[in-house]
Amino acid sequence: MPLAYFVVRATVPDPAKRNAFDEWYRREHLPDAAKAFGVRKARRFWSATDTSLHVAMYEFADQAALDRATNGEALKTLVAEFDRSWPEVTRTREILVLAEEFGVG
Prior knowledge:
It is a single chain. The chain contains 3 helices and 4 strands, in the order βαββααβ. The chain is of the alpha+beta class. The chain has a single domain, classed as Alpha-Beta Plaits (2-Layer Sandwich). Helix 1 (about 20-35) packs antiparallel against helix 3.
């Protein structure tokens, strides 16, 4: 079974709030989400081309594991906390399934 990824794209519209959002995500949200989902790995990124765009990526062993994690109460709890903490930040969510991996070395 291929790896699956839960991807959350968040737009932080106010540049003055980016550092506070970054700190909250680093200290609270990412560790809470990784633990609640039982992920293999969690990564997050700031876009270099759109400075308001933050992307978090949660890696699962397969799509079944991702579906179990995101269809339960854990996601609802995380979404509610996010909405309470950052009501002005909009988000989209995607599910990606690894099609191919290539690497040298």
